[in-house]
Amino acid sequence: VHRNSGKGRAGTAITCLLFFLGFYDNIYDCAKLFSSRRFTDGKGISQPCQLRFIHYFESFCKREVMSPQIKALKSITLVDVPVTSSLSNGCNKPFFEVFMVDGLQQKMIYTNKGNSEQVRFYAKQEGKIDLMLPGKLRLFGNIMIKFRYNGALSQPELFRVTFNTAFIGNNNSITADRFQISPESLSKDFDRFGQ
């Protein structure tokens, strides 16, 4: 497999192949093998969504999970308010979009962009943002949630979270800290996001 950098998507595929072929009995050691052979600094797969996928693959191969489940999205809580402008000390009208992902196809199934109660300015002092959905949004399979904010001229992406409903535990919740979310770009907006 040849890619320009050869560490992200190619590394994900190669790590899963190494595990499938039985090089090691856990995905972590396969990822370490890939990174030690491909890079002199030991770095390898680094994107949170790719790291999550290799662990999904391991769980699937070990038959810990058999098939995707239908789950209902009821609410989203952002702990700490991202600062999108050094002048505002807060976030200008954040909103989110929920996509079902099938291969390269993304289908938006919900956005709260038109909800004037939720899409407003949030001050850093508020500490968190609680976003309740009006009903139960049914999710199945690969899901991506993009968080954006209304800028002066555009709607830049703050970050995104990807997951598969088959791997949601019995507590029916997902927690992702700042190191488990995927920034669209490592911008100053993402750097000012809290813990």
Automatic annotation (TrEMBL):
GO molecular function: phosphatidylinositol-3,4,5-trisphosphate 3-phosphatase activity
Domain C2 tensin-type: 68-195
InterPro entries xref list: C2_domain_sf (IPR035892), Dual-spec_lipid-protein_phosph (IPR051281), Prot-tyrosine_phosphatase-like (IPR029021), Tensin_C2-dom (IPR014020)
GO cellular component: cytosol
Cross-referenced Gene3D superfamilies: 2.60.40.1110, Protein tyrosine phosphatase superfamily
Stored PANTHER family: PHOSPHATASE WITH HOMOLOGY TO TENSIN (PTHR12305)
UniProt name for this protein: C2 tensin-type domain-containing protein
Organism: Strombidium rassoulzadegani
